[in-house]
Amino acid sequence: MASTNASAQLNGEDLPSPIKAIVLAIPFALLGSIIATIFLFLEDHLITAVWQDLPKALGMTEPAWWLVVLLPLIGAAIVMIAWRLPGRTGSGPLEGLHFDVTPAIFASVILAAFGTLIFGLSLGPEAPLLACGTAAGAFVLRRQPDPVMKFGMLMTALAAIAAIFGSPIVVVLMLAEFTALGRIPAAALMPGFVALGVAYVAETGVGGWSGLGSSSLAVPGLPELTSTSATDILVGLAVSLVAAVVTLIARKFGQRIAVMARSNPPLVLIGVALLTSGLAIAVREITGGSVNLVLFSGQMGTPEMLAETSLGAVALIIVAKLIAYGGALGAGFRGGPIFPAVFLGVGVAVAGTLIFPSASLTALVVAAVAAAVAAALRVPFTAAVLALMLATTAGAGHASAVAIFGATIGFLLRVALDRWEAEHDPAEALAAAQS
User: Mind telling me which residue stretches traverse the membrane in this protein (predicted)?
Assistant: First the structure.
């Protein structure tokens, strides 16, 4: 479940008046944008230093097999160090997104996140961005009444996570869905809406000021979609089903890993690091692609996946990424679940076009990604819009229907799986909540 403890911590009746809340949201939106910019700058430059500059300094054109093994192990060691700090790295990615990281546990959470993201484990940056935002908001308002502090935490976190999506609309939908489900009080909706607008201006700039810098979700290289055919819709439904199932298998694998980790956390953490390394090396040797196809969140490997022309290679990459992603979800690493799910959706879409060449790759990517994200987080509206954002430069508007269908399929399958787990597999559900 895409969880947040914000509703348990923040009561709508305790919030400032509507106008005061909107005014208060503005500086915390700016704070969230600044924090996110710093985090993403550090993440990008540290990944470059570790995975590109270091191999070059050692005389390599690409990371040698032993370095691909060593670096995720270093990441695991960093996570184990973070376990010794207050908070023990906070809640895990199987539980969804969290708006409750305070300064007291921030060091533990962010250290584990850097150990995960910088050293190649298959999780995304969205959860650490939320942690940075909530901790910063709590620190600034630490002397204020509890409701005011938690309101500031939420506003800062929303602005921070918006930086990675390149558009506030995705997070606006996420905020609305959390509000509709009662996880965020309705009184926080309009201030959050304004905060996201302010954050977007801070990132993109205004007038002669270029802003702090923003990310773009648009996937390069997608063919222009001028209309949606019946083939696109039918194959889109099929790849949506497959993408959702693949994502849920990864989640189920993560739950199994989480159960194992309860008895011996260090062994499982190291085992998943080695497994991820082995899969990355195997994919590189067999397909000729880079280790980025398995390592990291999937953003760097997406262009390679889109260019793949062998169905066997695509299937191998999907299986390898599924295992690496599921392992990272349950082993104790810290990061977000969204972008690896996006990568799996892209992979399934590529496979779909190789099997059905007459179907549009752009339409299938939108459908499969919507299904995968909805299955990962149980937020179908957010999933559909996020998938459409990937194709903003390739005629995304024509893919709106398949985005909706895909998100619906992913959501329904996730709901069905959650109900089945609650009835038949409560131990794994508990392990996921405690991971």
Answer: 21-42, 64-85, 97-121, 151-176, 188-213, 233-254, 266-286, 306-326, 338-357, 363-391, 398-417
SS3 state at 393: coil
Specify if 218 maps to a domain: no
140/270 same-domain check: no
> Residue 197 has which token pair?
């607008």
Which of 40, 84, 106 is CA-nearest to residue 297? 40
Q: Which of 28-37, 183-192, 298-307 has the lowest mean pLDDT?
A: 183-192
Token code pair at residue 309: 């022309």
Q: Which residues are bridge partners to 124 per DSSP?
A: 336
**Phi/psi of residue 206, each to 5°?**
-155, 140
Average pLDDT over residues 389-413: 89
Is residue 243 a part of any domain in this protein? Answer: yes
* Domain identity same for 254 and 153: no
Bridge-partner residues for 336, per DSSP? 124
Q: Are residue 188 and residue 240 in the same domain, yes or no?
A: no
Give the pair of three-digit tokens for residue 417: 């799986």
| Residue 121, H or E segment | none
Residue 151 has pLDDT above 50, yes or no: yes
According to DSSP H, which parts of 264-399 are helical? 265-287, 302-307, 311-331, 338-355, 361-377, 380-390
SS3 209: strand
Helix axes 168-180, 146-165, angle to 10 degrees: 140
- In this structure, the answer to whether residues 284 and 190 fall within a common structural domain is no
C-alpha 87/C-alpha 108 separation (Å) is 6
Tokens, residue 65: 């097999």
Lowest mean pLDDT: which of 91-100, 202-211, 287-296, 424-433? 424-433
Averaged over 75-103, what is the pLDDT?
90
Give the range of the structural domain holding residue 51, as residue numbers without chain letter: 6-204
